[in-house]
Design brief:
Structural class of chain A: alpha+beta
Structural class of chain B: alpha+beta
Strand order of the largest sheet of chain B: 1-7-8-10-9
Strand content of chain B: 15-25%
CATH topology of the largest domain in chain B: Ubiquitin-like (UB roll)
Helix content of chain B: 25-40%
Largest sheet of chain B: 5 strands, mixed
CATH architecture of the largest domain in chain B: Roll
Number of domains of chain B: 4
Oligomer: heterodimer
Low-confidence stretches of chain B: 477-492
Shape of chain B: globular
Shape of chain A: globular
CATH superfamily of the largest domain in chain A: Aldehyde oxidase/xanthine dehydrogenase, a/b hammerhead
CATH topology of the largest domain in chain A: Aldehyde Oxidoreductase, domain 3
Mean pLDDT of chain B: 93
C-alpha cells in the first residue's frame, strides 16, 4: 500500500496483458463519432471561406432557407460574442473572443476554410445543396502566411484589436505578434567569448496535421427544458463541456457530453469546432443535429501544428562544453493567438546544462487555420533547431554525438528555462543505452547515413476523477473521465488489479460521461496514465479500506488489525489463524447486506510530474538520382518511468517515431499564391504507409518517477520530440551537408545534392 | 438494351442475398452499408480511396469461381456490386474471431482502432487468397491502409502470424455456398438497368449493348473501377447522370495473348493484368505494383487509366514507350490507333462521340526496357515524374529509342529530341549527357504541389542517366524495385 517503487514484484504492472478494447475494435463494434444515429436527426454542413483573408460584406441566407428540407441556417449572429480576455494569460489561452470567431467568422474570414455559415437539413445532400445557395459578398484583403513576415510592421493585420502584449512602448497600432516568451540565464556575451566554436543556423519547419484517421464528428440533441446532450469524438469531454457552456452562455450542468470512441487525436481533438454549431442548430430546430467534417474540412479548418522559423546561435569549447546558446523562434499561431510558445522555450536546451542561455519564442498570427496541439505541442520544431545545432557542434568539434550530450547532460536538481526542476531523471541511462545498442555501431552502406537526436518533455498532471464500484459478484467497474486514446483503459485496469490483488479480467474499465464524474482534464499532455491512474489507485484503495472495515466487522476485530493481501482481507495479528481470510469476492457478496454497496472515488489535482527523455537513432538511405529518402532502421530509447502496460508503451514509441518520419520527410501544408490550401486530402498530404517505415525498435529504460505510486512518467509525447531532428540528421549524414528546412522532400534533397556536385566541380 | 434487364441490385451482403432498389446511382458502397443496413464498422476516413478505413472484401466470379479482393467502399458505386458478395468487418467473425482479428488483438495491431476494420479486411483478403509469402506481400496488402497510431510494426507482426492460417471448415462451407449463389445469378445473364433519382445506371454485358447505350446516352459518364470517377462525386460533389459501367462487359474483361501482343480488355483491372505485364517486363510489373494501393488496383483498370487522359496516369508513358496501341470501338465499328496519338492535349483525347476504349494492345517483345516512377512517397502516391525507356542497342550503338515521360507536360508524351540525340550514337555517358540537354528542350513541365518544374526537369534527366547506368551494370538493375527488401537486411 506504500509508494515504494523499488519492488518490481508485480502481478500485473509491467506485464503483457490482454487488451480490454481489442475485440470491439477488430469486429467494428466500437462506436466512433459518426457511428451513432438518433431518430429525427438533421444533418449539418458548414459553408467555408474560399479566401485566405477577406472582409465579410454581406451574407444572404434567403435562398438557402427556402430550400425544401432545410430546417435552419445560421451565421455568427447565432453564436454569442465575447470580449477579449485580459492578462495575465495562461500558458494555453482559451479566449472566447477568438473561439467565437473561429467557430463562425464574424467581421472577417481569416483563412481558407474558415466557417462562415451552417445549414441543418433533413439529408446531407440537401444540406450541401443549401450551402451553394448562400450568397456571401467578400472584400478580399492581402494575406500573410509566414510568421516572420507577419510579425513585421506593415504586414496585413489579421485581428485589428490585437496589440502586442508585454511591449513596454505600449503600441498604438495593432500587430500580428501577440506576445513573446523568453527564458534566460547567465551572460551570453561572456559565454560566447569562452567558446572555441560558434555556429549560427536558421531552421524552418512547415505546419503538419495530426492526421487522425477519424474526422471530427458530433451529434447534439436539445430538450425543451434547455438541456443539451452532446456525443462527440474528443480527447476531453469535460473540456468540450466547459468551452461550449462558456461560449454559448449556458450552465455547465445543462450540457452532458459523452465521448465516443476516439479515432486518433494526437492533440487535435482538444478543442471545439462544430460542436457549438450543432448545439445551436439543435436549439433552433428542436431536433438532433449531426455534424461530420469531411477530410477536406479537417485539413482546411481544424488546427494543424505550428510551422516555425528559428535563428539559433551556439558556442562550445574544444572539450565539448557548451558555453552559450541563444535562439529566436517564430511560431505560426494561425488566425488567432495561442501558439505553444511557452513549450518552445521549455524545450530549448532543456537536456543540457548551459550556463549562458536565452530562448525567445514569438506567437504570431497568420492567415492559416488556428493551430491546435499536436503530440508534444511546440517541442519537435524547437528540438529540430536545437538538436540540429548541437549535432553540428559535435560534428565540427569531432566529438561523438552521445559523448557530447553526456558531457553537457542535465541531472537531478537542474532546471529548464521555464523553471521546471528535475527530480530523479533517466537522461544519462538513456544516452548510455543508446551508446551500447548494436544499432549505434552497425555498419552503413553507400548512400546511407545515421542520425541521432534527443528529446525532452515534461508531461502534464492536473485534474482527474475516478469512480470505482465493487459489484456483488466480485467484479469491479473503474470509471474515468478520460477518453481512451492510447490504452488508458488497459493501464487503469492494470493498476486497479494490482492494488486489489485480483485478476484483471474481473475489472471493467469505463469512460464515463460528464454527468457521471467529477471534472477530468484532457487525455493529452501524456497525463492520463500518470494523473488519472493515480486517481484510480486512490479510488481502489478506498474500496480496500471499506473491505477491511467490512471484514473487521464480520470478525469483530478492529479495522487496524485487518490487512489487505493478495486480494483478500487477512487478520494481522499472530494467533488468529482460526480466522479464515475473506476474499474480495466473498466480501462483495456480503456488502449490500452489511451496510451498503462499496465504491471508491477520487478527485485529484496531480502534481509531481517527472521529466522524460527520448533518444532516437535512425538510418536512412538517400537515392542520389531522385533525392528520395528511405528510413532503413530506427531505434527509440526512452525513459518511461515505469511501463504499466509495456505493449502500449512500445506502441506509443513506435507510433511517435513514425509520425516523426512523416513530419521530417513528407508532410506539409502547401498553399497557393492566393493563400488557398492545396493538399486537402490524404492523396496529397502524404502520411507514411507500411512500406515507408522500418520496424521501430524500442528500448524501455525504467527510472521511476519518485512522485507517483507506480513511478509513471508520460510516454506518448516524448517519443515524437526528437524524431524529425533525428531523421534530418540522418539525411545530413548520408549526403554530407546540413539540412535545415523540413520536410526533407525529394526536391529539396536533390537540389542539395546538385549544389554539392557543383561546389565540388 | 435487350429486354433482359433487371432494375434492382442483387448481392450477397455477407452470406445473405439482398435485393436493393437503388435510389441514387451515385450512392457509394460505404454510404449504403452505413446508412441502410446500418453497418457502421466500415469507416469513412477520406472518401477518396486513400486511407482504406472503408476497405471491404468483395467476392466476384472469375472463370466460374469466386475470387476475393479488397476494395475501397468509399468510392465504389453500389450498383457495381450487382451479382457480387460484400464482406464488411461485421461478417468476419462468427462465434469466434477470425485468426486475423485474433492476432491483431493479441499483438496490439490496433490502438485507436478506427483504421482497424479496414485492416482486418485487407488481411482477411490476403488470407482468403492463400496467405502471405513474405514481407513484400504483407506490405502490398497494407499499403492502402493508413494507420496513424501504431507505426505499422504490430500490424505487420499480426499479418505474419495469421495471414497464412488454413481456412476453417466453416469458412470453406460458406464460401462454397456463396459461390453457388453467385453462379446461379450469373446464369440468367440479365444486364443491370437502373432508373434512379440521379438518372439511369446501365451495366451492359456485351460490346454491342455498350455501344448502343452510349449512342442512346451520349452525355453519359463511362465508369470502370471508379477509382477516379468515384472522387468526382465524393470529393468534387458532382452528380454523374447517366452512368454507364463498362466493367460488366464480358469481352472487355478478358485478356488474350497473340504471338506479338498481350491484348488487355478495357475492364481488366491492374491486379488482373499484373502477372501478364510482369512477364513482358519485370520493370513494368513493378510499376503496376506501385500504382495506387491493392484496393485501387483491384478496382481500377488499365483501360480507365488511359481513357481518362490524365497527364500523370502511370500506364500511358510506359505503354507509349513500349509502342502499345488502342482499339477504339463504337456503333460505327472499330479502329486501331497508336496509344501516343490518343493524347491530343491536356483534357482532350482522340475519342469520337459514341466511342469507347475497347482493348489495349501491348507488344510482347521489347528492346532494353525500364520504367521509373518518382513520387513523394514510394508506394501509393501520385506520380511527379515517370520515365519509360525502350532502347535497342547493337554493337554498342543505339539503333532505336522510344522514350516517354509522364508528369512533364499536359499529356504523357515521347521525348522526341532526346530520342533523336540518342539514335545512331554510341551508348555511352557522353551520348547521355547530350541527350539530357536535348531532353530539356522536349518538355516545359509545370510547378505544382507535387513537384517544381526544376525538380521534374532534373529528375527526368537523372532517370535517363539511371537507365544508362543500369544497362551498364545489371547488378544495380531494379534498385528501386528492391527497395523494400533492404528492411530484411538490418540486423537486430
Amino acid at each position: 500500500m506504500s509508494n515504494d517503487q523499488s519492488t518490481t514484484n508485480y502481478r500485473w504492472v509491467g506485464k503483457r496483458t490482454p487488451r480490454p478494447d481489442g475485440v470491439d475494435k477488430v469486429t467494428g463494434r466500437a462506436r466512433y463519432g459518426d457511428d451513432m444515429s438518433v431518430p429525427g436527426m438533421l444533418h449539418c454542413k458548414i459553408l467555408r471561406s474560399p479566401h485566405a483573408h477577406a472582409r465579410i460584406v454581406s451574407i444572404d441566407l434567403s435562398k438557402a432557407k427556402a430550400l425544401k428540407g432545410v430546417k435552419a441556417v445560421l451565421t455568427c449572429a447565432e453564436i454569442p460574442d465575447h470580449p477579449l480576455s485580459e492578462p495575465p494569460y495562461a500558458p494555453i489561452i482559451n479566449d472566447m473572443h477568438d473561439i467565437s470567431r473561429n467557430v463562425m467568422a464574424r467581421e472577417k474570414v481569416l483563412y481558407d476554410g474558415h466557417a462562415v455559415a451552417a445549414v441543418a437539413a433533413t439529408s446531407e445532400r440537401i444540406a450541401r445543396a443549401a450551402l451553394k445557395l448562400i450568397d456571401v459578398e467578400y472584400e478580399v484583403l492581402p494575406h500573410v502566411l509566414d510568421p516572420l513576415e507577419a510579425a513585421q510592421p506593415g504586414a496585413p493585420i489579421l485581428n485589428e484589436d490585437q496589440f502586442t502584449f508585454g511591449d513596454e512602448t505600449e503600441p498604438k497600432v495593432p500587430s500580428n505578434l501577440f506576445r513573446s516568451i523568453t527564458g534566460k540565464r547567465g551572460d551570453l556575451e561572456a559565454g560566447f567569448a569562452e567558446a572555441d566554436l560558434i555556429i549560427e543556423r536558421e531552421f524552418i519547419s512547415e505546419p503538419v496535421h495530426q492526421g487522425y484517421i477519424e474526422p471530427l464528428a458530433c451529434i447534439a440533441t436539445t430538450s425543451e427544458d434547455g438541456c443539451v446532450e452532446l456525443w462527440t469524438t474528443t480527447q476531453g469531454h469535460f473540456v468540450i463541456r466547459a468551452l461550449c457552456a462558456k461560449l454559448l452562455n449556458m450552465e455547465l450542468a445543462k450540457i452532458r457530453v459523452t465521448a465516443s470512441e476516439i479515432g486518433g487525436g494526437f492533440g487535435g481533438k482538444n478543442t471545439i469546432y462544430g460542436e457549438p454549431v450543432a448545439i445551436r442548430l439543435s436549439q433552433m430546430t428542436g431536433r438532433p443535429v449531426r455534424m461530420v467534417m469531411t477530410r477536406t474540412e479537417v485539413f482546411r479548418a481544424s488546427g494543424p501544428t505550428v510551422g516555425s522559423r528559428s535563428k539559433i546561435k551556439m558556442g562550445a569549447k574544444k572539450d565539448g562544453t557548451i558555453t552559450a546558446a541563444e535562439v529566436d523562434t517564430w511560431y505560426q499561431a494561425g488566425a488567432f493567438k495561442g501558439a505553444p510558445v511557452g513549450r518552445a522555450v521549455e524545450t530549448y536546451f532543456s537536456s543540457y546544462k548551459i550556463a549562458n542561455v536565452r530562448a525567445t519564442c514569438y506567437d504570431v498570427c497568420v492567415n492559416r487555420p488556428k493551430v491546435a496541439a499536436y503530440r508534444a505541442p511546440g517541442a519537435p520544431m524547437a528540438a529540430f533547431a536545437a538538436e540540429g545545432a548541437i549535432n553540428e557542434l559535435a560534428d565540427r568539434l569531432g566529438i561523438d554525438p552521445i559523448d557530447f550530450r553526456l558531457k553537457n547532460a542535465v541531472g537531478e536538481g537542474d532546471e529548464s528555462l521555464m523553471g521546471s526542476k528535475y527530480g530523479q531523471i533517466g537522461l544519462v541511462e538513456v544516452l548510455e543505452k543508446v551508446k551500447s545498442h548494436p544499432h549505434y555501431a552497425a555498419p552503413l552502406g553507400p548512400n546511407q547515413g545515421r542520425g541521432f537526436a534527443l528529446g525532452y518533455w515534461m508531461h502534464g498532471g492536473g485534474l482527474s476523477s475516478v469512480s470505482a464500484h465493487l459489484l456483488d459478484d466480485g467484479t469491479v467497474t473503474v470509471a474515468t473521465g478520460n477518453p481512451d486514446i492510447g490504452g488508458s483503459r488497459s493501464s487503469m485496469r492494470v493498476m486497479a488489479a494490482e492494488e486489489l490483488g485480483i485478476d484483471i479480467e474481473l475489472i471493467k474499465p469505463i469512460v464515463a460521461d460528464t454527468g457521471s464524474m467529477g471534472y477530468s482534464h484532457l487525455t493529452a499532455g501524456s497525463r492520463t496514465t500518470f494523473a488519472t491512474g493515480w486517481a484510480v489507485v486512490n479510488a481502489v484503495r478506498e474500496i480496500i479500506d471499506k473491505l477491511r472495515a467490512l471484514a473487521a466487522k464480520k470478525w469483530g476485530i478492529s479495522v487496524d488489525d485487518v490487512i489487505w493481501e493478495s486480494g483478500q482481507a487477512v487478520p494481522k495479528k499472530a494467533g488468529q489463524d482460526r480466522i479464515k481470510p475473506l476474499s474480495l469476492k466473498e466480501l462483495a457478496g456480503m456488502a449490500t447486506k452489511m451496510g451498503g454497496a462499496i465504491a471508491g472515488h477520487s478527485e485529484i489535482n496531480a502534481g509531481g510530474v517527472g521529466a522524460a527523455f527520448s533518444a532516437q537513432l535512425v538510418d536512412v538511405e538517400v537515392d542520389p538520382e531522385t533525392g528520395f529518402v528511405t528510413p532503413t532502421r530506427y531505434t527509440v530509447v526512452q525513459d518511461v518511468g515505469r511501463a504499466i502496460s509495456p505493449d502500449y508503451v512500445e506502441g506509443q514509441m513506435q507510433g511517435g517515431a513514425v509520425q516523426g518520419i512523416g513530419w521530417a520527410l513528407n508532410e506539409a501544408y502547401i498553399y497557393d499564391a492566393e493563400g488557398r490550401l492545396q493538399n486537402t486530402g490524404f492523396l496529397d498530404y502524404r502520411m507514411p504507409v507500411a512500406s515507408d517505415v522500418p520496424m521501430i525498435d524500442t528500448v524501455l529504460v525504467e527510472v521511476p518517477n519518485p512522485n507517483h505510486p507506480y513511478g509513471v512518467r508520460g510516454v506518448g509525447e516524448p517519443c515524437l520530440v526528437p524524431a524529425p531532428a533525428a531523421v534530418a540528421n540522418a539525411v545530413e549524414n548520408a549526403i554530407g551537408r546540413t539540412m535545415s528546412w523540413l520536410p526533407l522532400s525529394p526536391p529539396k534533397i536533390l537540389q542539395a545534392i546538385e549544389e554539392l556536385k557543383l561546389a565540388a566541380e | 438494351m435487350t429486354a433482359e434487364t433487371r432494375s434492382t441490385v442483387r448481392l450477397l451482403l455477407g452470406w445473405t442475398p439482398v435485393d436493393i432498389a437503388v435510389a441514387d446511382s451515385n450512392q457509394t458502397v460505404l454510404q449504403y452499408l452505413r446508412d441502410q443496413p446500418q453497418l457502421k464498422g466500415s469507416k469513412e476516413g477520406c472518401a477518396e480511396g486513400d486511407c482504406g478505413a472503408c476497405t471491404v472484401v468483395v467476392g466476384a466470379l472469375k472463370d466460374g469461381a469466386i475470387r476475393y479482393s479488397a476494395v475501397n467502399a468509399c468510392i465504389l458505386f453500389l450498383p457495381a456490386m450487382d451479382g457480387k458478395q460484400i464482406l464488411s468487418v461485421e461478417q468476419v467473425a462468427d462465434t469466434e474471431l477470425h485468426p486475423v482479428q485474433q492476432a491483431l488483438v493479441e499483438l496490439h495491431g490496433s490502438q485507436c482502432g478506427y483504421c482497424t476494420p479496414g485492416i482486418v479486411n485487407s488481411l482477411l483478403c490476403l488470407n482468403l487468397n492463400g496467405g502471405a509469402a513474405d514481407r513484400q506481400a504483407i506490405d502490398d496488402a497494407l499499403i492502402g491502409n493508413l494507420c496513424r497510431c501504431t507505426g505499422y510494426g504490430p500490424i505487420i507482426e499480426a499479418a505474419e502470424k495469421a495471414c497464412s492460417t488454413e481456412l476453417s471448415a466453416a469458412w470453406k462451407t460458406r464460401i462454397a455456398a456463396a459461390q453457388k449463389q453467385l453462379l446461379s445469378w450469373a446464369a440468367d445473364d440479365q444486364a443491370l438497368a437502373l432508373e434512379t433519382r440521379n438518372g439511369p445506371y446501365l451495366a451492359p454485358k456485351t460490346p454491342d449493348q455498350l455501344a448502343a447505350a452510349l449512342d442512346a446516352h451520349p452525355a453519359a459518364t463511362l465508369v470502370a473501377g471508379a477509382t477516379d470517377v468515384g472522387l468526382w462525386v465524393t470529393k468534387l460533389g458532382r452528380s454523374l447522370n447517366p452512368l454507364i459501367s463498362v466493367a460488366e462487359v464480358a469481352d472487355l474483361q478478358s485478356m488474350r495473348l497473340t504471338d506479338s501482343h498481350l491484348e488487355i480488355g478495357a475492364a481488366v483491372t491492374y491486379s488482373e493484368a499484373h502477372q501478364a505485364l510482369s512477364e513482358i517486363s519485370e520493370s513494368l510489373g513493378e510499376l503496376v505494383r506501385r500504382i495506387g494501393s491493392r484496393q485501387v488496383r483491384n478496382s481500377g483498370t488499365i483501360g480507365g487509366n488511359i481513357a481518362n487522359g490524365s497527364p500523370i496516369g502511370d500506364m500511358p508513358p510506359a505503354l507509349i514507350a513500349m509502342g502499345a496501341s488502342l482499339v477504339l470501338r463504337s456503333r460505327a465499328g472499330r479502329r486501331e490507333i497508336p496509344l501516343q496519338d490518343f493524347f491530343i492535349e491536356y483534357g482532350k483525347q482522340d475519342l469520337r462521340p459514341g466511342e469507347f476504349v475497347g482493348r489495349v494492345l501491348v507488344p510482347r517483345k521489347l528492346d532494353t526496357f525500364r520504367c521509373y516512377k518518382v513520387s513523394k512517397r514510394f508506394d501509393q502516391d501520385i506520380t511527379a515524374v515517370l520515365g519509360a525507356f525502350n532502347i535497342a542497342i547493337e554493337n554498342g550503338a543505339v539503333v532505336s529509342a522510344r522514350i516517354a515521360y509522364g508528369g512533364m507536360a499536359g499529356v504523357p508524351a515521347r521525348a522526341v529530341g532526346c530520342e533523336a540525340a540518342l539514335t545512331g550514337k554510341p551508348w555511352n555517358m557522353k551520348t547521355i549527357e547530350t541527350a539530357k540537354v536535348a531532353l530539356d528542350a522536349d518538355f516545359k513541365p509545370m510547378t505544382d504541389m507535387r513537384a517544381s518544374a526544376a525538380y521534374r526537369t532534373l529528375a527526368a534527366r537523372n532517370l535517363l542517366e539511371r537507365f544508362y547506368l543500369e544497362t551498364q551494370n545489371p547488378a544495380v538493375a531494379l534498385e528501386l524495385a528492391s527497395r523494400n527488401h533492404m528492411k530484411g537486411l538490418v540486423d537486430g
